[in-house]
Amino acid sequence: MDFRKVFIGLGKGVFYWGFVQIILIGAAYFGAIPSSLHASSGYLMTLMLAAMLILALVGKLGGRIIGLTVLALVMLGAQGYIRADSIPAIAKALHPVFGIGVMFLGQSLAKRATQGS
């Protein structure tokens, strides 16, 4: 099994799935679907990033790729935390910022793994 190729595919998947997340929350905002679909879909992204971390470690893809994968997981975890009722609204506004950051971090990770750095 080529860990690098699977890692690259998952990184691209994280990027493209981010667009699905945007569509889902938009549809939920206008009442077309329940917002729980957006939340459940976020768990899929968490699984993809967790798999990427395991692949980066097992495939020995390098410290930078491993570190950036951990960063993406932390950002995704923070998204769930900043939705709590006890968090001020200004902090909740970071939810989409972190989401876009995770998307593009997934794309960057895929490119870095392709280049072998």
Can you give a write-up of this model?
This protein is mainly alpha-helical and 117 residues long. The protein has one domain. It is built from five helices and no strands. The longest helix has 27 residues, at 3-29.
Give the topology, please:
Elements (H helix, E strand, L loop, with lengths): L2 H27 L6 H23 L4 H19 L7 H4 L1 H22 L2
Percent of residues in β-strands? under 5%
Q: Specify the structural class.
A: mainly alpha
Which bin fits the share of residues in helices?
A: over 70%
What would the average pLDDT be, to the nearest integer? 92
Question: Low-confidence parts lasting 5 or more residues at pLDDT below 50?
Answer: none
- Helix count equals 5
Biggest sheet features: none
3D shape: globular
Instruction: Write down the domain tally.
Output: 1
Order of helices and strands: HHHHH
* Strand segment tally: 0
Please state the CA-atom Rg, rounded to the nearest Å. Answer: 15 Å
Distance between the termini: 19 Å
Question: How would you summarize what this structure contains?
Answer:
The protein is mostly helical. It has helices at 3-29, 36-58, 63-81, 89-92, 94-115. The model has no long low-confidence stretch (mean pLDDT 92).
